[in-house]
Design brief:
heterodimer; A: mainly alpha; 3 helices; 74% helix; elongated; B: mainly alpha; globular
């Protein structure tokens, strides 16, 4: 077993990002899409913290950036879920393929 | 020998995170997917611990494992017939898988090939005090902006989710 390094974390980040991307593209339920977006944000946070830990001179910047990402994710989740509830009230479902009122 | 333990815990936590992430995107029952999302968040918190980022691990459990998870589960309950609906759309399955594999391979390649420097001068352990120092000195302006953003998001969420016409009851 080789020593733990930056590459381990970067590969984990890329794998989780890909899984989240697959969820965003393939889920029909809008709540499922949102959950996949949270996975994407988490994967980016892993990369940020790992780079802060292993790259010289980064200091606490990586962790501070991760904290900002978490803040933005919280705001995004609350607004997106409020939107979902508004859509559900209007259309009685959260299928992303039925939310096409703005389609030209 | 301590390094061996660290490596082992990294692999265990990474396995938990990746398997629960796969469950999140593949389970048909959206409620079960939400529960696996909580497990993935906790796994990521453990990953932060292996990176010596204790404060971030605590924030991850509080904000993601607590607040966002509850928000997600509430949204699942409030949009109830979603629980019985099929979640995967067959039409986009293959292109989505293809795009995902492409992005995964490309990202891994670019991240591994990038020059991250020799790693000299990297801090083995960054104390929460140092994080606070950076947050309230160097990044104090974005920090204040974040509070405005949270206020705007809160007002926006209330406006969007409010039942129209309900406010006249108070008058």
């Amino acid at each position: 077993m080789i020593d733990l390094g930056l590459n381990h974390y970067l590969v984990l980040s890329a794998v989780v990002f890909s899984i989240g991307l697959y969820g965003v593209l393939s889920r029909r339920n809008a709540v499922g899409v949102l959950m996949s977006v949270e996975l994407l944000l988490n994967s980016v946070n892993i990369a940020l913290v790992a780079i802060g830990r292993y790259v010289g001179g980064a200091g606490a910047t990586g962790q501070v950036f991760a904290i900002f990402v978490i803040t933005v994710a919280a705001a995004e989740a609350s607004v997106a879920l409020a939107l979902l509830i508004a859509i559900y009230r209007d259309r009685h479902g959260v299928d992303v393929e039925s939310a096409n009122a703005l389609q030209g | 020998m301590a390094d061996f333990g660290l490596t082992l815990s990294f692999y265990a936590l990474a396995a938990v995170t990746v398997v629960s992430a796969l469950m999140v995107v593949s389970l048909r029952n959206i409620f079960h997917a939400g529960l696996f999302l909580v497990l993935a968040f906790v796994g990521v918190a453990g990953i932060y611990l292996t990176l010596n980022a204790a404060f971030l691990a605590a924030v991850q459990v509080l904000v993601y494992g607590g607040a966002i998870a509850v928000l997600m589960l509430f949204a699942i309950f409030l949009t109830r017939n979603a629980m019985t609906q099929g979640n995967l759309s067959g039409r986009f399955q293959a292109p989505a898988l293809l795009a995902t594999l492409l992005v995964g391979v490309l990202f891994s390649y670019v991240l591994l090939m990038a020059n991250w420097g020799s790693g000299k001068g990297a801090a083995e352990y960054i104390a929460p005090e140092q994080v606070a120092d950076a947050l309230f000195k160097e990044f104090v302006f974005p920090f204040e902006l974040a509070s405005i953003m949270l206020l705007v998001a809160m007002i926006g969420a209330i406006m969007l989710a409010r039942t129209p016409g309900r406010e006249t009851e108070d008058a």
